[in-house]
Design goal:
The complex is a heterodimer of chains A (486) and B (530). Chain A is mainly beta and 486 residues long. In chain A, 14% of the residues lie in helices and 56% in strands. Chain A has 9 helices and 27 strands. Chain A is globular. In chain B, a hairpin with a 2-residue loop joins strand 4 and strand 5. Chain B has 530 residues and is mostly beta strands. Chain B is 8% helix and 55% strand. In chain B, strands 7, 8, 10, 11, 13, 14, 16 and 26 form an 8-stranded antiparallel sheet that branches. In chain B, strands 17, 18, 21, 22, 23 and 25 form a 6-stranded antiparallel sheet that branches. Chain B folds into 3 domains: 169 residues, no CATH class; 157 residues, Sandwich (Jelly Rolls); 143 residues, Sandwich (Jelly Rolls), CATH 2.60.120. Classes of the chains: A mainly beta (486), B mainly beta (530). Strand 16 of chain A pairs parallel with strand 3 of chain B, so a sheet runs across the interface.
């Protein structure tokens, strides 16, 4: 039992404390003039000759995104009454819930902890960027049809299908080592690239690549399913006689070599980017980030179950004929259903892609102290998601800069972000948050004795803060590249 | 300076906007939960052929694929000779003869048997029997007595016996009558029940002086024999059974049936073996009764077959009561609560005829009865009503009723019916306290009867459109209040019961039932009860 709990805990940790791939990378960061902006566009070059990131402190990032667990989604004041209601209450506006999640509900978390981060200018032309980071991520996806089935039943799908494909969770943790270069091609064009080597540590996913429930007009139901479980780590999987997974155990007494980053879980990725000054006060930029893969080859296990069957009622002919009891028919149906699955198991490695992001941005600087920006971000991985950020960045000389952003994402349209950068000497402190809790909810209970204040919205939270060491300034670049603008 | 101002304004905007917007008092969080998922599922299906469902047994058979109910009862009637015929009592001849000469001859007389009123035995073949005699002498001399029974043939010769009787003594003896044939019909005037007896007396020694007391008494007695057969006339006898009523115990069931049912070809066949060689007639009066009518069987008396010669000692035969000779279909189809019956059985119902009766020592009559009810019938709005307690609500008020979680309920029934029957159901929710029907649901025809040919056999299945049975919210609400449910099933055969239909083993029905429901899940976690 302890082993199972441990297994569950490990998977949970992987789900909750993972990094980088799926969550909403800080949009506001793109336009804030800090070295970490280069993570979104390798063509970006900070205003320094040398940059040194302090391990852990220079840019620890935590991100969380979901479209399910907003306070306002879970609890609402009851219209016309002095009480609160949940989504299960009859007066709850469930239509708004479905509108808010669109075609899927999801939750994702990520953590990025930099271990080494340096950048420096070479020959006044090349900007070299080196770093090592620990990344972890997890994402779960629940199609909207699943909520429809749970809350409203299958009646609404008569003559159509409930598409539950994509249901699942995916988590992975790895060590990323990268090296990047950027340089000006012309006075107005700068390009950059970054090569990433990944050493995977742990990976787990269970995803229904295909899960479609078709409800026919005669109420028979067809289920077409293909579910894959992929594990990479010191897991022991036991199958029962029917071929189903009976148990998954995480081995005890394991060493670092079994769970630590390893080249046996080798990955490769690239980031590419470009910045172009269309006019003196108008810059366009584009980048593609995390174009790559990880091949999970150390202690991998893949289990695939496929099935395509139709349930058109229990055949009670034998019950009528007196040969069997109805309970027996139901039991035999269950047994026969198991035999209709096609199981494939393999201990060969598998490959997961990195969720690639495509950034397109424009920055306009109408006056010296203000820059207006627009950023489009497209994420490909467990579906395609799109977000758009508008920003305004203010400069208080070279010392202080602030950025206010507005992001439309997750089918929500009131996400305000804030970035702050302060530089004194070679120290630069920064903090970026992509959603400012503009409204808070105070929860009281126990007659007012208990009191908790929480942001009204918990669906979107990305925080990065840290201290950079910046040495020197690139004087000539000041005219080309607006600082703290974008 | 300008940028600083803008910065301050922006920062103020951010700070001011970050305020507590609402306060949620979790003490006022409603625990009320209401979900109304709509679910559809094709619940059950079936493809059933009658021969797969009906296992033939002693009472249910397929006769050339036609389904029949057959009830057999062995030895429903069994009579032996002793049941109506008692053999004659010992017949005795007793005579005293005065001896007045050396030889006294031709003393002739008859022995008369008494087999009973109106019974005239002409011949009797004895299996085992004997006669006894007592010879008493009051003579002063010895005599010899020669007895002769010319009507008793022993191996073709008359029975004779010679016995010496000493003076003044008594001699007893017996005569074996095994296998003799006794002819009781040698007397022209009474050719039955009489057998002649003769004897001679001769003095054995010297020339005695005959005195007035010299006499011989002869007593000859034929004891009751076991006979092989007897012929003659055994009289007219009639036995009437008492009028009686058989309660079928079906009143409760039949009283819940309305409409008409007509079983076309029921029959009762009595198979019997009869070794009484005499005419027998059975006259049975049967009447079915229910609350509305009485129907008589109207079957004519039945004359049984019987052996008419010694060579054919037993006949096997049968008689049938069916629609050709009675009102049996009408009687059964009336669904009687009770059967009133009485009857009579008579032998020689037409009196004495030229033909002699023959009975055998082992004569018996044994009859088995077979009732056949082929499933050949027609039904016109045959309705069966039954009232049950409302099983949709729990007897225990503490328990949740499943129906409380139901808002709508529909059944989609699809049937390919290969039977010449159609069915509709009416469900009435009944409040026994106010004696009112709260709500009624009529399904209409759940499936239509298959067409039949002139022989009543289905020609093709009836494939109707799917039937939807909707239990409306109003019905479901009333179901929570009713304490009883009345089900009324209405059956019709093909063409509304105007055609005779037959049920064959290869009839098949294919069906599926889809369920569509809207659940009403209402919980309240604020309640202490929850």
């Amino acid at each position: 039992m302890k082993t199972r709990i441990k297994t569950a805990s490990i998977i949970a940790v992987m789900l909750l404390v993972s990094s980088g791939v799926f969550a909403q990378y800080l949009q506001t960061q793109y336009f804030l003039n800090i070295p970490q902006s280069s993570q979104l566009n390798p063509a970006y070059r900070p205003d320094a000759n040398v940059f040194i990131g302090i391990p852990v402190l220079s840019g620890t990032y935590f991100g969380m995104s979901n479209n399910l667990f907003n306070v306002s989604k879970l609890i609402q004041p009851m219209p016309g009454a002095d009480s609160l209601i949940t989504i299960l209450h009859p007066d709850y506006d469930r239509d708004s819930f479905f509108r808010s999640i669109g075609n899927k509900g999801f939750i994702s978390t990520e953590v990025n902890v930099p271990l080494l981060n340096v950048g420096f200018l070479v020959a006044d032309v090349w900007w070299v960027d080196l770093g090592i980071s620990v990344k972890g991520m997890a994402r779960g996806r629940l199609p909207a049809d699943l909520f429809t089935l749970a809350l409203e039943g299958n009646e609404g799908f008569i003559g159509s299908s409930a598409d539950l494909s994509g249901t699942g969770v995916h988590a992975q943790a790895y060590l990323e080592t990268y090296a990047g270069l950027s340089r000006n091609i012309t006075d107005r064009l700068r390009v950059g690239g970054r090569l990433k080597l990944m050493q995977g540590a742990l990976s787990a996913s269970i995803i229904a690549d295909k899960l479609e429930l078709k409800v026919n007009n005669d109420y028979s139901q067809s289920l077409d399913t293909e579910v894959a479980l992929k594990l990479n780590g010191p897991f022991d999987v036991t199958l029962n006689d029917d071929g189903f997974i009976e148990d998954i155990l995480f081995r005890e007494d394991i060493g670092f070599g079994e769970v630590g980053p390893s080249f046996k879980n080798f990955g490769l990725g690239v980031d590419l980017g470009a910045e172009y000054m269309l006019m003196d006060n108008l810059q366009l930029s584009a980048s593609i980030i995390d174009l790559g893969f990880i091949r999970w080859g150390r202690e991998s296990y893949t289990f695939t179950a496929t099935n395509d069957f139709t349930f058109d009622g229990f055949d009670i002919s034998e019950a009528i004929e007196g040969d069997k009891e109805f309970d027996q028919i139901v039991e035999e149906f269950g047994d026969s259903l198991l035999t209709t699955f096609d199981f494939v198991e393999s201990e060969e490695g598998y490959t997961t892609g990195l969720p690639t992001k495509l950034y397109l941005a424009g920055s306009y600087k109408p006056v010296d102290f203000l820059a207006l920006g627009a950023l489009s971000r497209t994420t490909i991985g467990m579906g395609v998601r799109e977000s758009l950020t508008l920003s305004a960045t203010l400069f208080a000389g070279d010392v202080l800069s602030t950025s206010l952003s507005y992001t439309m994402t997750n089918r929500s349209f009131n996400n305000f972000g804030f970035g702050l950068g302060a530089r004194g000497g070679f120290f630069q402190f920064y903090a970026v948050v992509d959603q400012i809790p503009t409204s808070w909810v105070e929860f009281t209970g126990d007659g007012g004795n208990d009191r908790v204040v929480l942001p009204q919205r918990l669906d979107y939270m990305n925080v990065r803060f840290g201290i950079n060491l910046l040495f020197g300034r690139i004087k000539e670049k000041k005219t080309d590249t607006p600082m703290l603008v974008e | 300076m300008k940028s600083k101002t803008v910065f301050i304004v922006l920062l103020s905007f951010l700070l001011l906007s970050s305020c507590i917007k609402e306060t949620y008092d979790m003490d006022k969080l409603s625990g009320e939960v209401a979900l109304s998922p709509g679910l559809v599922v094709k619940a059950v299906k079936g493809d059933v052929t009658l021969s797969d469902v009906v296992e033939p047994n002693d009472t249910l058979v397929f006769d050339n694929e036609l389904l029949k109910f057959v009830f057999r009862e062995d030895s429903v009637f069994e009579y032996n000779l002793d049941d109506f015929y008692t053999s004659f009592a010992p017949a005795t001849f007793e005579g005293t003869t005065l001896v007045t000469s050396i030889l006294v001859t031709d003393v002739r007389d008859t022995i008369e048997i008494d087999p009973g009123d109106d019974i005239k035995i002409k011949k009797m073949k004895v299996l085992t029997g004997q006669a006894s005699y007592t010879l008493t002498s009051w003579c002063s001399f010895d005599v010899s007595i020669d007895m002769l029974a010319p009507g008793i043939e022993d191996g073709g010769a008359p029975l004779t016996l010679s016995e010496d009787v000493a003076a003044g003594l008594v001699v007893n003896g017996t005569i074996d009558l095994d296998d003799v044939l006794i002819n009781f019909d040698t007397d022209q005037d009474q050719p039955y029940n009489l057998v002649p007896f003769e004897y001679d007396i001769s003095v054995l020694s010297g020339s005695p002086v005959f005195g007035p007391s010299d006499s011989i008494k002869v007593v000859f007695e034929i004891e009751e024999p076991d006979f092989d057969y007897a012929t003659g006339y055994f009289g007219y006898h009639a036995e009437e059974s008492e009028r009686d009523t058989l309660d079928l115990g079906m009143e409760d069931f039949f009283s819940r049936l309305t409409g008409s049912i007509y079983l076309t070809s029921p029959s009762i066949t009595v198979n019997y073996k009869n070794s009484f060689g005499l005419p027998m007639r059975i006259d049975t009066q049967v009447k079915g009764m229910n609350d509305e009518e009485e129907i008589s069987l109207d079957r004519d008396p039945i004359d049984l077959d019987y052996p008419t010669s010694l060579d054919n000692r037993e006949v096997s035969s049968s008689f049938t009561i069916d629609k050709t000779n009675s009102s049996l279909p009408e009687l059964i189809s009336m669904l009687p609560y009770e059967i009133e019956y009485f009857g009579s059985a008579s032998i020689n119902p037409d009196g004495e005829t030229m033909e002699d009766n023959i009975i055998f020592g082992n004569s018996r009559f044994i009859a088995d009865m077979e009732v056949e009810v082929p499933l050949e019938f027609r039904l016109a709005n045959l309705q069966l009503s039954d009232t049950t307690e409302n099983f949709l609500i729990s007897d225990d008020p503490e328990e949740d009723d499943p129906i409380d979680m139901l808002e709508e309920f529909k059944l989609d029934l699809y049937v390919e019916n290969g039977f010449p029957l159609e069915l509709s159901v009416m469900i009435e929710l009944y409040d026994s306290t106010s004696m009112t029907v709260l709500e009624t649901l009529s399904t209409g025809n759940l499936f239509s009867a298959a067409p039949v040919d002139l022989n009543g056999r289905v020609t093709q299945p009836s494939i109707g459109p799917p039937v939807q049975i909707e239990f409306t919210p109003a019905f479901i609400d009333e179901a929570k209040l009713a304490d009883q449910i009345i089900f009324t099933f209405t059956l019709n055969t093909t063409d509304n019961g105007t055609k005779d239909v037959k049920i064959y083993s290869d009839y098949r029905i294919v069906f599926s039932v889809g369920v569509k429901l809207k659940a009403g899940i209402n919980l309240n976690f604020n309640s202490e009860d929850e």
